[in-house]
Design brief:
- This protein is of the alpha/beta class.
- 45% of the residues lie in helices and 13% in strands.
- It has an eight-stranded parallel β-barrel with strand order 1-2-3-4-5-6-7-9, surrounded by eight helices.
- Helix 2 (35-51) packs parallel to helix 15 (346-359) and helix 4 (101-114) crosses helix 7 (150-162).
- The longest helix is centred in the last third of the chain and has 19 residues, at 262-280.
- It is globular and about 65 Å long.
Length: 366
């Protein structure tokens, strides 16, 4: 196993946290705000996360959703890299079937050149949007074929990242630049790093594949909580040591929102849940204000969905959130918790991470 590769995957717990804590950033846009506002919040969040000892900051690919301004993770990550110096930055994730593997290898090779040793490449096989938008992205309506081809796409991407297509392969003379080919060119010097690949999932497919390949795995507990423990068990059972890892390493995405009082937390998560109601019923929009959510007349079916959704959102005061996160860790055995704070306002999101950092006694800025 390559020790450097493992070191770029495993995090370190700080303060009283049981495992490393990280950030999943959906770059949410609230009603009455702009994408510019959301992206400024992301910069502030990355800086806060870095200063308080969070391990990594990932951005997720979504499309055709007015309330989520993260359609271009690589562009956002380049911006975040320019405003940070230490925290790991990555995709949580890039939806590989939406893209040519060579393009992703080039984008993340560029990010690695901008922020050497700090870039993660998290990959998913879902479209990150509805079927019509996926068809527009992929220029085909054969969407299942794209998902079924994921292992082959992953293998091709890895070959481009390592620049090691075998002789005789149609792509043997094609190189992802920036990348390893620069080290083999006359006078070439190349970074020893290349972004570690993570597989993301919300079911068993990627869990098994990540285990078989000896890759780190990230599970979307924040929207597929019922599958978390079965997927993690499958990952661990399937795991085979590799040059990347000698033992499994799994993180889970967790919806967590801390506020200064419990009532405000309930108001904020209700607004986020209303946003999900609209998304799930084909009416995606900006994240509503808590006032709009409180005034909304939920149907019985919508209320049932909200109650079910919010049951998996750890929210309340900082102490309540810390207790909920610790219980979730003990239940799942996750090696890392990646927190996503869904709320209308950027100030609320920033405050949540600050409160959680304080609750765990994470490092404070010098």
């Amino acid at each position: 196993m390559a020790a450097d590769a493992a070191d770029e995957i495993r995090g370190t717990a700080h303060g009283t946290a049981l495992v490393p804590l990280s950030v999943l950033d959906l770059v949410t846009v609230g009603a009455g705000t702009t994408a510019t506002d959301a992206l400024r919040t992301s910069v502030g969040l990355a800086r806060l996360a870095e200063s308080r000892g969070f391990h990594r900051h990932w951005v997720a690919e979504h499309h055709s959703m007015p309330g989520v301004a993260s359609s271009s993770p690589a562009v956002i990550l380049a911006h975040l890299a320019a405003h940070t110096t230490r925290i790991r930055l990555g995709s949580g994730g890039v939806m590989l079937p939406n893209h040519a593997p060579l393009v992703i290898a080039e984008q993340f090779g560029t990010l690695e050149a901008l922020a050497p040793g700090r870039i993660d490449l998290g990959l998913g096989r879902a479209p990150g949007t509805d079927g019509a938008t996926a068809a527009a992205l992929r220029r085909t309506d054969r969407l299942n074929e794209g998902a079924d081809d994921f292992p082959q796409q992953l293998a091709e991407l890895t070959r481009f990242l390592d620049d090691d297509f075998p002789d005789g392969h149609p792509y043997a003379r094609i190189h992802a630049v920036p990348g390893p080919v620069q080290a083999t060119s006359p006078g070439g010097v190349q970074s020893p790093h290349r972004p570690p690949v993570w597989l993301l999932g919300s079911s068993g497919f990627s869990a098994r594949l990540a285990g078989m390949l000896g890759l780190p795995f990230a599970f979307a507990h924040h929207f597929s909580a019922q599958n978390t423990i079965p997927a993690l068990d499958l990952y661990r059972e399937s795991f085979r040591p590799s040059e990347v890892l000698d033992a499994p390493y799994a993180l889970i995405g967790v919806s967590a929102l801390a506020t200064d009082d419990e009532k405000e937390a309930r108001r904020q998560v209700l607004a986020a849940a209303l946003n999900m109601v609209r998304l799930r019923t084909g009416r995606p929009g900006l994240v509503p204000t808590p006032e709009e959510a409180e005034a909304y007349d939920f149907s019985p079916m919508e209320r049932e969905f909200v109650d079910s959704w919010n049951a998996n959102v750890i929210h309340g005061t900082a102490d309540e959130v810390r207790t909920g996160l610790d219980e979730l860790h003990k239940r799942t055995g996750a090696d890392e918790l990646m927190l996503t704070a869904n709320a209308h306002g950027g100030d609320v999101r920033l405050r949540s991470y600050e409160l959680i950092a304080d609750a765990y006694g994470l490092p404070t800025p010098a």
